[in-house]
Input
Amino acid sequence: MSIFDELQSSLQEAVEIKQGKAQASRTTRHEVADVKAIRTKLNVSQVEFAEAMGTSVDTIKSWETKRRNPTGLAAKVLATIQDNPAFFK
Output
């Protein structure tokens, strides 16, 4: 299943739960990604990584120093990149 299909399925499930038509059938948890290790492996700067992730350099710095943890879609994207660095390109 592609990341798009998985996100689309999750969104549809969320709508059905909100409407009371369904109950949550699964919970997905991801390990907190080592953002600095991922970025270093990709050989990109914090600025380049922030642009690619659609966030600020300050957010990247916060993730790298463990002051904050990526959540939601950012956590999912980072887990995907960690598992498959080619996804970043």
About this structure: Residues 45 and 74 are 18 Å apart (CA to CA). The chain has five helices and no strands. The chain has a mean pLDDT of 88. The longest helix spans residues 3-18.
